Amino acid sequence: MTFRETHNSLPLSIRQQTYELLAPLLSSTIDGANQAKHAHWNVTGMHFQQLHELFDTVAGTLFARADALAERITALGATADGRTSVTAQNSFLDKYPEAANAEEHLHALAAVLSALSSHARTSAAQLSEAGDEASADLLVETVREADYSLWLLEAHIA
User: Fold this and answer.
1) Per the domain annotation, does 105 fall within a domain?
2) 5 falls within a domain
3) What distance in Å separates the CA atoms of residue 60 and residue 127, rounded to the nearest whole number?
């Protein structure tokens, strides 16, 4: 990754380390948001309305997180790449299953949120140790939001 000139005071080596952690999280967050939209469009069953709205809320939260991650990447002088082909190639999420019912969608999205939270939590600790507290703080907020959304989903799992 080539970094553009910037007055950002973080050393280039730390900005590069941050990019290496944020770029796959960006791709995976976009992928997760799209998976939540897939669930939103395709959920059926007795609790359709509740889950339809919940899955849309999860998608919106993830799209907002992706935007924050992308803006941090560009603030560090790198390029935030959210193209579909790049997202598909760089996402660490499992392929979304051919969910046939509401409970399968709930479990699939719970796995998405758990993976995003886990990656963000580990990366936040690494970035804090490296001296990029601003990026670490962004990832702590990512963990908080993913865990909250996970709680909402798991409340519907019997």
Assistant:
1) yes
2) no
3) 26
